[in-house]
Amino acid sequence: MTVELRQRGRAAMDFMIDLTIASRPLAARWNADLAAAGVSAATLPDDLDERHAHVDAALGGSRAYGTSGLIMEFASVEHGRVAREAFDEIADVTLPRLAALGEGPATLTADPDFEAPAYFKGVWFHRT
């Protein structure tokens, strides 16, 4: 199903996308800062929390890392709100179309025997 966002939603989504694209050169700069601090894949701890602490300590003075973190945190938090508001603008057209999809021949059945893998339980890996 193809939908077209209205002006405000389209502009807001374009801004969020352009913001993250514009921040890409910062990654090259803070990766250079990381290498200059002697940090590499071989020197990073295996534990993700320790790894984040190690990188944060090594890049504490990096303006590129701080700016990149600020932009990406903003985008990560705001993208949900922006997407929801863009959807709300077209809900009058989209909701009836979504409801019609529920009347089709397809069905979805959850497997009652499904068990999530061990790595899934108790680990926050979203945005990691």
Describe, in plain words, how this protein is organized in 3D.
- By secondary structure, the protein is an all-alpha fold.
- Helix content is 62%, strand content 0%.
- α2 packs across α4.
Summarize the structure in short.
The chain contains four helices and no strands. With about 130 residues, it is mostly helical. The model has no long low-confidence stretch (mean pLDDT about 90).
> Fraction of residues in helices?
55-70%
Rg, alpha carbons: 21 Å
Total strands: the figure is 0
Ends apart, CA distance between termini: 31 Å
Which term fits the overall shape? flat
Low-confidence stretches: none
Please report which band the strand proportion falls in: under 5%, 5-15%, 15-25%, 25-35%, 35-45% or over 45%.
under 5%
Query: Structural class of the helix and strand makeup?
Result: mainly alpha
pLDDT averaged over residues: 90
- Tally of alpha and pi helices: 4
Largest sheet: none
Q: What kind of oligomer do you see?
A: single chain
What is the string of SSEs from the N terminus onward?
Answer: HHHH
